Every structure is written in structure tokens, then in C-alpha cells.
Request: fold
Amino acid sequence: MIVVMRSGASPEDVEAVMTRIRELGYRPHRSDGEERTVVGVLGNDRRVDPGELTWMPGVEKVVPILAPYKLASRDFQPAPTVIDLAGLQIGGSDVVLIAGPCSVETRAQMFEVAEDLQALGVRLLRGGAFKPRTSPYSFQGLGEEGLRILAEVRDEFGMAIVTEVMGPDEVDLVGSYADVLQVGARNMQNYRLLEAVGRQQRPVLLKRSPSATLEELLLAAEYILAQGNPHVMLCERGIRSYDPLVRNTFDLNAVPLLKQLTHLPVIADPSHGTGRRDIVGPMARAAVAAGADGLIVEVHAHPEAALSDGAQSLRPADLEALLPALEHAALAAGRHLAPVAAATR
Ligand code: PEP
Ligand code: MN
Reply:
């Protein structure tokens, strides 16, 4: 449940409510909005009698939150979470674009693609240094050397870096180079990792597991939020289905549903969601039209030579050709595409 304070409630009123919540054996989570303060009751609160809190000074109402996730729910926080990054606002009025190769392969590869992407107005660069590969014999990423290359690219091009962290003991290392920590689909339910990225303050891009329900995705986000990191973006990247024509089935339903259920930004990944370059563009448009706050798209200057996910990687020219259509899709959703908006302002 959440305790909604009156707009004129004093700091002492809020403190008293938080103390009472602790006395009842729960964890209070304070969130100060523009108008009023809301205090979440964390823990299995079904046994708390709302009457315990309803009549305290400064309390306007006590609202039950029926969803098992609390901090992630729209009921807890009606206003969207907006994450500031590289001069962009993720979850704000513009639709942001994260682009780059699946893996960091060489310094030259990253510099080439970053230069092309920067020319298209892309400010957020993706690239994996630690790669979760289905086969142990596939390219596993360059590790820390890849992180160093990413940091060089950031210094040269002023882009923010999005890169994956695979284990709780690597969070400090990856966090010392990255601007956004990506938790991959395979790790969505690695609870020690979720807690570890929750204990630090870099924004987290949390990808949906191919077999997870949306509720499970939101509960995974809750692990991060409950540790004190409010900067979580959710990523729909396709779910496992039965058609061998595609790598995954991009779940477009997830986009508007997540927007209803949570205040967290929703990012769509049509690259992994399809696995094929020829339909990445249409699905990217669809996701933006459906209300996604951003896209993460794999782009490689030479996809035929890519060490991972070449078949789903766009060339920079493909992305360039797609931008006007993405802006149209953004307009259909009452927004602008950030790179296009920046170029025309
Ligand atoms: C990736 O972004 O390259 C990746 C491995 O994605 P996912 O975790 O969604 O499979
Ligand atoms: Mn990939």
C-alpha cells in the first residue's frame, strides 16, 4: 500500500508515518513529488490494517497497491520516470535512439561506427564487452579491453555508453566505464545481479527474458528499485515462440501494456526481437508508434563480418534511411525522435 500525504503535510508528519511503518515491521519508501509526498509500505503488506495509518496527522489517504510490484507501479508513481543522459531525457517527450554493434570487436570497428552514428545524431552508443553467448565456443567479448575502447569512444565522440554487465562481481568494473548498465535477457532473474545494480546509481537497461511474463519483468525491476536505484528502463527484446523464420517474436503488446502498468521508460529492441535485418525497420516503427520511449538497435559498419548478431545488424545507411519513418511514427504517438528533433531545433 502507499500512504499519500496531504500537500500541506509537515516534515514531522511524514517522519511520524515512516516511523509507524517501521514499527509495524515494514520498510517505508519516501518519494517527494512536485505537489505531495507519497510513502510506500514495502514488504508483504497484506497484514497491515490501513486504519493504522489513515488517521495519522498529514495523511490524505492510504491506497492499496494490488500488483505484487510496488515501486515500479503507476499507482505508486503516476508521473513518468525521466532519466537524464548525454543531454537527452529518456522517458520524456522525445523518443531516444540507442545504436551500435552487438559486440565491441576492435578499436577501429568502434571508431568507424561511432563516427557514422554521431553524424546521424545518435548520442547513446551500445556495444557489449562482456557477451552472454548461447555457446561457450562463440566470441565472448573483449572484456575489460572492450570497456577501455568504449571509454575512448565516449571521450572522442561525447556519446554515452550502454554496455552489459553479466555478474554481480563485475558491476563496479563495468560501472567505472559505462553510463548505462545493461542487464541482459538471460540475467533478468539473476537476483544477486539485480540487487548489485540497484545498489549503485548508474541507470540500468533491464531486458526482458524471452520466457518472462510482464509481471516477472516488473518484479525484476522492483529488485533494482528496492535497493535504491530509481533509474531503470525496461526493454522488450522479443520472446521465445515457435516460428523458425524469426529468432524471437517481438512482443508489441508489451509496449503499451508496460506504459500502463509502470512509470519506467520502455525501450524496444527490434534487433533481437526479430533477428533479421529486413524487418528491424518495420518493427522499430511499430514500437515507436505504440508508445516506446526509445529504441535500441544493432548497427554495424560491416555486418557481414560481425563477430555476433550480424544478420540482425543494420548498416549505418540503413539506419539513416529509417530515421524519417521513425520521426513519422513518433509524430503518430505525439512525440519527436530525439536525433531528428535535435537537428531541426
Ligand atoms: C545484446 O543486447 O546484444 C543481447 C545479448 O541482448 P539480449 O540480452 O536481449 O539477448
Ligand atoms: Mn546482440
Q: What stands out?
A: Residues 316-332 form the longest helix (17 residues). The chain has twelve helices and 15 strands. The two ends are 43 Å apart (CA to CA). The mean pLDDT is 96.
